[in-house]
């Protein structure tokens, strides 16, 4: 018999786990949330990778570095002259830590307000929905749940002959804690993390080289968006080398020597710091006892059905440890959907309308299918695009790079996908997500009145362009 009984036990306090626990408490389920992360002060630090060493702190650094870059390069056009601009890296990092800590504390208050029992330690699923809880302080104990949710998240991939030391060779966590701007900064991987962190340190003065093993940049996007992004990244000084397969990285005399191969042969580069950003994998190590009965996929993820059910009755899994995109908002909505399924019998998430964002400058955001996918699937479509340079607001802001592209079904005009590269793309995509969720058409976006002058007018005009009737550009 377990020490305690609960309606729901959640293992993992990231965006999926904590959102699920809060929703469960709202629905009067007696809930236990287990999360092992602690801050540098030894206090609980719920929020997972996203809040502590991912989405949130990286955006804090991106914003700080963006302000610094704009002061140096853009403000003179507005008539603002500033001299002797310097970046206090230590203060920037401290601000980032304060943002994270404030959100950690806010979550703990929410757990208390919702009467969620919180255990700061490790949870392991045993047989029969019993969970072994090993706290940072105190004795190990057990809890039995009518339902158990696995939400342990993910950890970074490593590559052979490149050992993370946390100082010279770092992962997504170490890159957030540099105490000075590296003169030369190397990045293995030109995905979301690589591009965002490369942007941060490039703006602050680093010479940044990104080594990407794939032969194309951001292969999930259409060529026109990638071309626009590559052009802007090059202007910003990001040196992106495609088809570059790293074979080793070693630290010598306080620098990192990286060997890689591309179509031209073998090469070697020396950096002051190196970031390894080659993707993430499900964090299942230590999560499951041998007799837990949970089935894993060939990729090491937990095998679930469309409703996030595992191979064991009343055991569920969500977020990065299951199929689908490794996105915080996807995990949150999965967790909430599962809880509502448990409590009410109804719970749903539409994987076709999950937005993606890369927080570079310009931002890149998309939802639904790309032209490449539509062609591969043989779906007849029509497309319309509109540049931010043709909007009054974009020009007035001084940030007019990029465009909006809308894809609609050729026969019934249903929205199939939208891609945006440009200012505030992360916010503008929400309108398109809503339209798609309600099975809207390009005509719906085109008929909705958009305020003038705004960046959202580019969405409006791109929808008009689907039928070649954009007002502010030649069709």
Structure, described:
With 475 residues, the protein is α/β, with parallel strands linked by helices. The protein has helices at 15-26, 48-53, 55-73, 89-113, 192-203, 223-235, 328-344, 371-376, 392-397, 425-437, 442-447, 457-465, and strands spanning 4-11, 31-35, 117-125, 130-135, 141-150, 154-156, 169-170, 184-188, 207-212, 239-242, 245-252, 255-262, 265-271, 273-276, 280-282, 315-317, 356-358, 363-368, 381-387, 403-409, 415-422. The strands form five sheets. The chain has a five-stranded mixed beta barrel with strand order 1-2-3-4-5. Strands 7-14-8-9-10 form a five-stranded parallel beta sheet, covered by helices on one side. The model has no long low-confidence stretch (mean pLDDT 96). Helix 3 packs antiparallel against helix 4. The protein folds into three domains: 4-156 and 281-349, FAD/NAD(P)-binding domain (3-Layer(bba) Sandwich); 169-278, FAD/NAD(P)-binding domain, CATH 3.50.50; 356-465, Enolase-like, domain 1. Helix content is 30%, strand content 26%. It starts with a strand and ends in a 10-residue tail after the last helix. A hairpin with a 2-residue loop joins strand 12 (255-262) and strand 13 (265-271). 45% of the residues are buried. It catalyses: N(6)-[(R)-dihydrolipoyl]-L-lysyl-[protein] + NAD(+) = N(6)-[(R)-lipoyl]-L-lysyl-[protein] + NADH + H(+). It comes from Wenzhouxiangella marina. FAD binds at residues 59, 123, 320, 326-329.
Q: Please indicate the percent range of residues in DSSP E strands (runs of 2 or more).
A: 25-35%
For the record, give the distance between the C-alpha atoms at the N and C termini, rounded to a whole number: 72 Å
Q: Helicity range of the residues?
A: 25-40%
Q: Which word captures the global form? A: globular
Report Rg.
24 Å
From the coordinates shown, what is the CATH architecture of the largest domain? 3-Layer(bba) Sandwich
Counting structural domains, the number is 3
Q: Looking at the chains present, what oligomeric state does this protein adopt?
A: single chain
CATH class of the largest domain: Alpha Beta
Mean pLDDT: 96
Counting DSSP E segments of at least 2 residues, the number of strands comes to 21
- SS-derived structural category: alpha/beta
Q: Mind summarizing the main beta sheet?
A: 5 strands, mixed, barrel
**Main sheet strand line-up:** 1-2-3-4-5
Unreliable stretches, pLDDT < 50, 5 or more residues?
none
Number of helices: 12
CATH superfamily of the largest domain: FAD/NAD(P)-binding domain
CATH topology of the largest domain: FAD/NAD(P)-binding domain
């Amino acid at each position: 018999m377990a020490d305690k009984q609960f309606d729901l036990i959640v293992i993992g306090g990231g965006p999926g786990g904590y959102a699920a626990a809060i929703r469960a408490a709202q629905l009067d389920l007696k809930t236990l949330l287990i999360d092992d992360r602690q801050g540098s002060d030894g206090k609980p630090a719920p929020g997972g990778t996203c809040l502590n060493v991912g989405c949130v702190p990286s955006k804090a650094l991106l914003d700080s570095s963006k302000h610094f870059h704009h002061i140096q390069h853009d403000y003179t056009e507005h008539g603002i002259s500033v001299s002797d601009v310097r970046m206090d890296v230590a203060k920037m990092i401290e601000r980032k830590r304060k943002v994270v800590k404030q959100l950690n504390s806010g979550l703990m208050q929410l757990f208390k307000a919702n009467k969620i029992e919180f255990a700061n330690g490790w949870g392991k699923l045993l047989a029969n929905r019993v969970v072994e809880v090993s706290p940072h302080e105190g004795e190990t104990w057990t809890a039995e749940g009518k339902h158990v949710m696995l939400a342990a998240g993910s950890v970074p991939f490593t590559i052979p002959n490149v050992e993370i030391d946390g100082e010279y060779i770092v992962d997504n966590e170490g890159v957030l804690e540099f105490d000075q701007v590296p003169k030369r900064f190397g990045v293995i991987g030109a995905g979301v993390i690589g591009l965002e962190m490369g942007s941060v340190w490039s703006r602050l003065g680093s010479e940044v080289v990104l080594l990407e093993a794939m032969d194309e940049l951001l292969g999930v996007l259409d060529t026109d968006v990638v071309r626009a992004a590559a052009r802007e990244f090059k202007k910003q000084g990001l040196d992106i080398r495609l088809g570059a397969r790293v074979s080793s990285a070693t630290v010598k005399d306080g620098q990192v020597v990286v060997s890689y191969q591309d179509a031209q042969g073998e090469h070697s580069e020396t950096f002051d710091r190196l970031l390894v950003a080659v993707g993430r994998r499900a964090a299942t190590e230590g999560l499951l006892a041998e007799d837990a009965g949970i089935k894993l996929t060939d990729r090491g993820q937990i095998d679930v059905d469309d409703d996030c059910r595992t191979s064991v009755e009343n055991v569920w899994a969500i977020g990065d440890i299951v199929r689908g995109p490794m996105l915080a908002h996807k995990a949150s909505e999965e967790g909430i959907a599962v809880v509502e399924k448990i409590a009410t019998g109804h719970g749903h998430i539409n994987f076709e309308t999950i937005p993606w964002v890369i927080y570079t400058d310009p931002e890149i955001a998309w939802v639904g299918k790309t032209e490449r996918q539509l062609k591969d699937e043989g779906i007849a479509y029509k497309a319309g695009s509109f540049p931010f340079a043709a909007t009054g607001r974009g020009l007035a802001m001084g940030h007019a790079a990029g465009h909006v592209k809308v894809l609609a079904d050729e026969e019934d005009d249903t929205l199939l996908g939208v891609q945006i590269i440009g200012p505030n793309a992360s916010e503008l995509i929400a309108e398109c997500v809503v339209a798609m969720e309600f099975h809207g058409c390009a005509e719906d976006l085109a008929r909705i009145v958009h305020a003038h002058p705004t960046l959202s007018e580019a969405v409006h005009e791109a929808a008009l362009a689907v039928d070649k009737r954009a007002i502010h550009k030649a069709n």
